[in-house]
């Protein structure tokens, strides 16, 4: 099951990434991410679109350098934690130490990396688009004989929900090549909190 959690989390992050990051602090982001789904029959709320930008080597290296410190701060936070000025200040400090103007700037870069990473086939490490990745994950879950029926049902429901969301169009095609260059490091660093 572990090998399915990270790809499912990445696929689902596309759906809620902007709304989660827009909260402004990781504690608030965790609370936002854990909200109950909308009641049946209610129209799904679409998060605001990610502010896309052309990524640079320096930004990606900054994310990689900051990730361990960011994880150390956010791993201590309880689920549904309220925004805490002390935690926000720590996150701001880590972001600035690693070359970002602010924690928001860091999050904008994470958003852009995430929407590109979501379209990479983990087996081939090639960009194929997030819909293709999600469809492949659905096929993997359906074929998995070791996965419990309950887990399979939940995973398929999550993946099918992610497939319904409109796939983001990558505005800066150079981001694909840049993320490909750092794919292994990014998948490892950004996947740690999703496994």
Automatic annotation (TrEMBL):
Signal peptide span: 1-31
Keyword entries, A-Z: Signal
Superkingdom, taxonomy of origin: Bacteria
Protein name, as recorded: Lipoprotein
Organism: Bradyrhizobium erythrophlei
């Amino acid at each position: 099951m572990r090998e399915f959690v990270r790809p499912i989390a990445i696929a689902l992050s596309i759906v809620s990434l902007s709304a989660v990051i827009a909260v402004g602090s990781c504690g608030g982001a965790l609370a936002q991410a854990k909200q109950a789904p909308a009641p049946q029959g209610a129209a799904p709320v679409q998060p605001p679109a990610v502010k896309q930008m052309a990524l640079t080597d320096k930004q990606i290296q900054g994310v990689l350098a900051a990730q361990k410190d960011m994880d150390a701060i956010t791993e201590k936070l309880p689920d549904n934690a309220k925004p805490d000025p002390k935690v926000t200040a720590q996150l701001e400090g880590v972001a600035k130490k690693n070359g970002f103007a602010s924690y928001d700037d860091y999050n904008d870069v994470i958003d852009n990396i995430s929407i590109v990473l979501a379209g990479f086939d983990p087996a081939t490490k090639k960009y194929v688009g997030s819909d293709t990745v999600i469809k492949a994950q659905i096929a993997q879950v359906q074929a998995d004989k070791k996965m419990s029926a309950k887990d399979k049902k939940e995973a398929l429901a999550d993946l099918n929900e992610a497939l319904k969301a409109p796939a983001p169009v990558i505005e800066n095609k150079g981001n694909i090549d840049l993320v490909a260059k750092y794919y292994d490091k990014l998948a490892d660093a950004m996947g740690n909190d999703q496994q």
